[in-house]
TrEMBL record:
Residues 2-122 form the VOC domain. It holds the Pfam family Glyoxalase. This is VOC domain-containing protein. The lineage of its organism: Bacteria, Bacillati, Actinomycetota, Actinomycetes, Propionibacteriales. InterPro entries: Glyas_Bleomycin-R_OHBP_Dase, Glyas_Fos-R_dOase_dom, VOC_core.
Length: 137
Protein backbone atom coordinates (compact mmCIF):
# COMPACT_ATOMS: atom_id res chain seq x y z
CA UNK A 1 0.00 0.00 0.00
CA UNK A 2 1.25 3.44 -0.90
CA UNK A 3 -0.02 6.18 1.42
CA UNK A 4 -0.10 9.78 0.27
CA UNK A 5 -1.63 11.46 3.31
CA UNK A 6 -2.39 10.44 6.85
CA UNK A 7 -5.37 11.67 8.79
CA UNK A 8 -7.08 11.02 12.07
CA UNK A 9 -10.70 11.92 12.68
CA UNK A 10 -12.40 12.24 16.03
CA UNK A 11 -16.13 12.37 16.75
CA UNK A 12 -16.95 15.41 18.89
CA UNK A 13 -19.94 17.58 19.83
CA UNK A 14 -18.45 20.78 18.41
CA UNK A 15 -16.02 20.30 15.48
CA UNK A 16 -15.51 24.06 15.04
CA UNK A 17 -14.44 24.51 18.67
CA UNK A 18 -12.14 21.48 18.47
CA UNK A 19 -10.47 22.86 15.34
CA UNK A 20 -10.09 26.26 17.01
CA UNK A 21 -8.43 24.60 20.05
CA UNK A 22 -5.87 22.94 17.75
CA UNK A 23 -5.24 26.30 16.06
CA UNK A 24 -4.89 28.24 19.32
CA UNK A 25 -2.76 25.77 21.27
CA UNK A 26 -0.91 23.60 18.75
CA UNK A 27 -0.44 25.81 15.70
CA UNK A 28 -2.59 23.70 13.39
CA UNK A 29 -4.60 25.70 10.85
CA UNK A 30 -8.27 25.10 10.17
CA UNK A 31 -8.37 24.38 6.43
CA UNK A 32 -12.09 23.55 6.28
CA UNK A 33 -14.94 24.22 8.69
CA UNK A 34 -18.42 23.10 7.64
CA UNK A 35 -19.90 23.24 11.14
CA UNK A 36 -20.42 19.47 11.26
CA UNK A 37 -16.82 18.88 10.08
CA UNK A 38 -13.54 20.69 10.68
CA UNK A 39 -10.18 19.74 9.19
CA UNK A 40 -6.86 20.97 10.52
CA UNK A 41 -3.30 20.76 9.23
CA UNK A 42 -0.01 21.81 10.72
CA UNK A 43 1.96 24.10 8.38
CA UNK A 44 5.07 21.94 8.86
CA UNK A 45 3.25 18.68 8.00
CA UNK A 46 0.64 19.25 5.32
CA UNK A 47 0.35 15.51 4.60
CA UNK A 48 -1.13 15.05 8.09
CA UNK A 49 -4.73 16.03 8.80
CA UNK A 50 -6.46 16.00 12.17
CA UNK A 51 -10.19 16.19 11.60
CA UNK A 52 -13.26 16.51 13.78
CA UNK A 53 -16.73 15.28 12.84
CA UNK A 54 -19.96 16.00 14.68
CA UNK A 55 -20.59 12.82 16.66
CA UNK A 56 -24.18 12.43 15.43
CA UNK A 57 -23.60 13.35 11.76
CA UNK A 58 -24.68 10.71 9.26
CA UNK A 59 -21.13 10.43 7.89
CA UNK A 60 -19.90 9.08 11.23
CA UNK A 61 -20.41 5.40 12.03
CA UNK A 62 -22.47 4.35 15.01
CA UNK A 63 -20.50 4.14 18.25
CA UNK A 64 -18.84 0.76 18.66
CA UNK A 65 -17.68 -0.90 21.84
CA UNK A 66 -13.99 -1.25 22.54
CA UNK A 67 -12.26 2.11 22.29
CA UNK A 68 -12.07 3.64 25.75
CA UNK A 69 -10.23 6.82 24.87
CA UNK A 70 -7.97 8.49 22.35
CA UNK A 71 -4.58 10.17 22.47
CA UNK A 72 -2.76 12.10 19.76
CA UNK A 73 1.01 12.26 20.28
CA UNK A 74 3.10 14.98 18.66
CA UNK A 75 6.89 15.00 18.69
CA UNK A 76 8.34 18.40 19.55
CA UNK A 77 11.90 19.66 19.85
CA UNK A 78 11.51 21.31 23.29
CA UNK A 79 8.73 19.81 25.40
CA UNK A 80 9.63 21.97 28.42
CA UNK A 81 9.13 25.17 26.43
CA UNK A 82 5.87 23.88 24.93
CA UNK A 83 4.62 22.85 28.38
CA UNK A 84 5.33 26.34 29.74
CA UNK A 85 3.72 28.06 26.73
CA UNK A 86 0.59 25.90 26.82
CA UNK A 87 0.13 26.07 30.60
CA UNK A 88 0.51 29.85 30.44
CA UNK A 89 -2.00 29.90 27.57
CA UNK A 90 -4.65 28.12 29.62
CA UNK A 91 -4.29 24.53 28.45
CA UNK A 92 -5.09 21.94 31.12
CA UNK A 93 -2.16 19.70 32.00
CA UNK A 94 -3.28 16.13 32.76
CA UNK A 95 0.13 14.58 33.37
CA UNK A 96 3.05 16.79 34.28
CA UNK A 97 6.39 16.61 32.53
CA UNK A 98 8.15 13.31 33.06
CA UNK A 99 11.29 11.75 31.63
CA UNK A 100 10.73 8.09 30.81
CA UNK A 101 13.54 5.52 30.93
CA UNK A 102 12.76 4.37 27.37
CA UNK A 103 13.89 7.73 25.97
CA UNK A 104 11.00 10.17 26.06
CA UNK A 105 10.33 13.38 27.93
CA UNK A 106 6.60 14.00 27.74
CA UNK A 107 3.56 15.89 28.99
CA UNK A 108 -0.13 15.14 28.50
CA UNK A 109 -2.77 17.82 27.99
CA UNK A 110 -6.55 17.87 27.89
CA UNK A 111 -7.52 18.47 24.28
CA UNK A 112 -11.00 19.16 22.99
CA UNK A 113 -13.81 16.94 24.29
CA UNK A 114 -11.66 14.40 26.13
CA UNK A 115 -8.97 13.90 23.48
CA UNK A 116 -5.61 13.54 25.23
CA UNK A 117 -2.76 15.41 23.57
CA UNK A 118 0.72 14.12 24.35
CA UNK A 119 3.77 16.16 23.50
CA UNK A 120 6.92 14.06 23.31
CA UNK A 121 10.60 14.97 23.03
CA UNK A 122 13.08 12.17 22.32
CA UNK A 123 15.86 11.96 24.94
CA UNK A 124 18.62 9.44 25.62
CA UNK A 125 17.20 6.25 27.12
CA UNK A 126 18.45 4.83 30.40
CA UNK A 127 20.87 2.07 29.33
CA UNK A 128 20.25 0.00 32.46
CA UNK A 129 16.48 0.11 31.98
CA UNK A 130 16.84 -0.77 28.29
CA UNK A 131 19.11 -3.74 29.11
CA UNK A 132 16.69 -4.96 31.80
CA UNK A 133 13.93 -4.97 29.15
CA UNK A 134 16.12 -6.86 26.67
CA UNK A 135 16.18 -3.86 24.33
CA UNK A 136 19.22 -2.65 22.41
CA UNK A 137 20.92 0.47 23.73
Amino acid sequence: MQVGRVGAAFAVKDPSAAGAWFDQHLGFRVVADLGWYASTQHPDHTALAVDFVKHDHDTWVEQSAGLQGAMLALEVSDVDAEHARLAEGGATVLKELVTEPWGQRRVQLAGPEGLVIELVQPVAPDPEWMAAQGLPT
